[in-house]
């Protein structure tokens, strides 16, 4: 939750007057405490972590939930059940890198929660060439970050900067949350 990417995005969204809360999945907390990398918790633990966070924040009625990569994917698994106002996924992992046939999109076909997925055009977890072919709910809006990778970082040759791409992502999130 303290990665430079999440820190910049959280601070940027908060600077617009939107309350931002962050939390860590148990396996990430263990990494922080022990300094050792470990595999992510089982999906049931990750989903329950989201449920607990929603409860601790006072319930779903006024919440837009989301996250970066797997955090956003797990949020997308609980959004409908929790009846939150909206969902924001930053760099959604549509498939593992190099394995485009192994999609993580089935539940996204039925999603009823208004959702924004902000995705880098060159994201190795699902880029601009493949994502438009997926069957996704009409409640999902995909916003593309020019020449961005999974963390929205562009190539130098693109003429774009990482700071510009992160500002664009923040603006997209702020606009979405205000409408939710």
Task: Give a summary of the structure in a few sentences.
36% of the residues lie in helices and 12% in strands.
Structure characterization notes:
Helix 1 (4-14) packs across helix 5 and helix 3 crosses helix 4 (70-82). This protein has a single domain (4-179), classed as Alpha/Beta hydrolase fold, catalytic domain (Rossmann fold, 3-Layer(aba) Sandwich), CATH 3.40.50.1820. The radius of gyration is 16 Å and the shape is globular. With 180 residues, the chain is of the alpha/beta class. The chain contains five helices and four strands, in the order H-H-H-E-H-E-E-E-H. Strands 1-2-3-4 form a four-stranded parallel β-sheet, sandwiched between helices.
Helix content: 25-40%
SS summary, helix count: 5
Biggest β-sheet description: 4 strands, parallel
Report how far apart the termini are.
24 Å
Looking across the biggest beta sheet, what order are the strands in? 1-2-3-4
Class inferred from helices and paired strands: alpha/beta
- Alpha carbon gyration radius: 16 Å
CATH-wise, what's the superfamily? Alpha/Beta hydrolase fold, catalytic domain
- Which architecture per CATH? 3-Layer(aba) Sandwich
**Number of β-strand runs:** 4
CATH C-level category: Alpha Beta
Report the average pLDDT across residues: 95
Number of domain units: 1
């Amino acid at each position: 939750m303290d990665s430079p990417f999440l820190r910049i995005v959280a601070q940027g969204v908060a600077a617009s007057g939107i309350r931002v809360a962050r939390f860590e999945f148990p396996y990430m907390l263990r990494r922080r405490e022990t300094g050792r990398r470990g595999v992510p918790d089982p999906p049931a633990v990750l989903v329950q972590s989201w449920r607990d966070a929603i409860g601790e924040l006072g319930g779903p009625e006024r919440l837009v939930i989301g996250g970066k990569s797997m955090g956003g994917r797990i949020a997308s698994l609980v959004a409908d059940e929790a009846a939150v106002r909206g969902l924001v996924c930053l760099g959604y992992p549509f498939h593992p890198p190099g394995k485009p046939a192994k999609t993580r999109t089935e539940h996204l076909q039925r999603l009823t929660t208004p959702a924004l997925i902000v995705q880098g055009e060159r994201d190795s977890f699902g880029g601009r060439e493949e994502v438009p072919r997926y069957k996704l709910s009409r409640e999902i809006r995909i916003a593309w970050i020019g020449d961005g990778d999974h963390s929205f970082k562009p190539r130098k040759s693109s003429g774009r900067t990482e700071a510009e791409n992160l500002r664009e992502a923040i603006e997209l999130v702020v606009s979405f949350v205000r409408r939710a």
